[in-house]
Amino acid sequence: MELKNRSRRLRHNPLARSMVRETRMSKDSLIYPIFFEEGENIKAPIGSMDGQFRWSPDRACEVIDECLEHGVNKVLLFGIPKVKDEVGSQAYDEHGIVQEATRKIKSAYGDDIYVVTDICMCEYTSHGHCGILHGHDVDNDETVAHLCDVATTQVAAGADMVAPSDMMDGRVGAIRHALDEAGFKNTPIMSYAAKFASKYYGPFRDAADSTPAFGDRRSYQMDFHNGREAMKEMTWDEEEGADILMVKPALAYLDVIKDLSYSTNLPTATYSVSGEYAMIRNAGKAGLIDEYGIMCESHVAMARAGADIIITYYAKEVADAIQKGDIG
Ligand code: PBG
Ligand code: ZN
Questions:
Q1: Quick check: helix, strand or coil at residue 208?
Q2: pLDDT score at 268
Q3: Does residue 165's CB lie within 6 angstroms of at least one atom of ligand 1?
Q4: How high is the pLDDT of residue 141?
Q5: How many domains, in total, are found in the chain?
Q6: Is 175 exposed, middle or buried (0-12, 13-18, 19+ CB in 10 A)?
Q7: The pLDDT of residue 247
Q8: pLDDT at residue 154, as a whole number
Q9: Which atom of ligand 1 sits closest to the CA of residue 203?
Q10: What DSSP line would sit under 213-241, residue for residue?
Q11: pLDDT score for 209
């Protein structure tokens, strides 16, 4: 058969395929989320997230060494305090769990590891909502004032970057102002700009004991029917001084990642969340899918959609896949 165009010419062998690959993966763009809880000598398996653990700060070096062995040198810290209260006071205590874990890691590794800290109240409030309640409603402006204290105490403890995940209005601008006032002008903010109200966070809430005691988060997180609204959130966060914009979750929102990455000149991040991890992990364990293969394909899809930065519980395994040349 006489054919002018044959796609197969460039698929002929591995070298040809590697030459024309459109998406390049790098370990440099991976961030690994870690859960810290108050206490000592703890490495507690998280039931809903097989292979993930809750660590006490005294064992931080174990988990950081593991990351570094795989070539992952960026982490995102979450904290689970012993005591939760109405106003989430442990979130902005200078000796809170994330502040202590950050201090420990930065004093041991300095600039060899990049520490990002999550800013939110839901792991610290007794009611599990992401802010201060007035009746059954999260009070936006009062919450923002507290988020600023979360940010400044985390950065004072050594955090390299902060990542507000609360979805209150105006928090990026307020945190920027608070950090500048506190002398942290060069600390970037990675905003959870388009964070959807998602069932994919279920396993995380089990890991962090942060399921809301009543209601849900739909009055502050985004409605998953909306794509254009993500562009609005993006624009506002840009105006308020965000340095990196994030879309969360990842796999069900590749269209949003694509739109956002085309529309902004800021780096685009995505967070492949606990539910995505748990689905792939458990389906793999049940022998229903090839876990490794699906992991590779899914993470390349996030990059192909436009994510410059990928936050993932699979960071170490993805780094290995890149190292082996299976992807990237
Ligand atoms: C805190 C926060 C959540 C996640 C990241 N930061 C939970 C939530 O909003 O309920 C989810 C991460 C994951 O599912 O892996 N607001
Ligand atoms: Zn929250």
A1: helix
A2: 98
A3: yes
A4: 97
A5: 1
A6: buried
A7: 98
A8: 98
A9: 14
A10: SSS-STTTSBPTT-SHHHHHHHHHHHHHT
A11: 87
With CA atoms as reference, report the closest residue to 149 among 132, 129, 128, 136: 132
- Domain assignment present for 14: no
191 in any annotated domain: yes
By residue range, what is the domain housing residue 107? Answer: 25-324
Q: To 5 degrees, how large is the angle CA 11–CA 13–CA 18? A: 75
- Closest alpha carbon to 67 in 105, 103, 25: 105
Name, in order, each residue with C-beta under 8 angstroms of 37's C-beta and a sequence gap of 6 or more.
44, 54, 55, 56, 79, 80, 81, 82, 97
Three-state secondary-structure class, residue 259: helix
Cis before 203 (ω within 30): no
Proximal ligand: closest to the CA of 205: 1
Ligand nearest to the CA of 127: 2
9 in a structural domain: no
Positive or negative, the CA dihedral 133, 134, 140, 145 is negative
Cβ contact 249:276 at 8 Å: yes
Indicate if ligand 1 lies below 6 Å from the C-beta of 92.
no
Cα distances (Å, whole numbers) of residue 271 to 44, 50, 63, 192, 275 = 23, 18, 20, 9, 11
CB 290 within 8 A of CB 284: yes
**Backbone φ/ψ region at 104: left (φ over 0), alpha (ψ -120 to 50), beta:** alpha
- Token pair for residue 287? 């022998």
User: Ligand 2 is a single-atom ion; what residues have CB below 5 A from it?
Assistant: 120, 122, 130
Atom 5 in ligand 1: residue holding the nearest Cα: 165
CATH of the domain at 126: 3.20.20.70
| Residue ranges of the chain with per-residue pLDDT less than 70 | none
Task: Spell out a b/e string for 301-327, using b for 16 or more CB atoms within 10 Å of the CB, else e.
Answer: bbbebbbbbbbbbbbbbbbbbbeeeeb
Task: Please report whether residue 292 resides in a domain.
Answer: yes
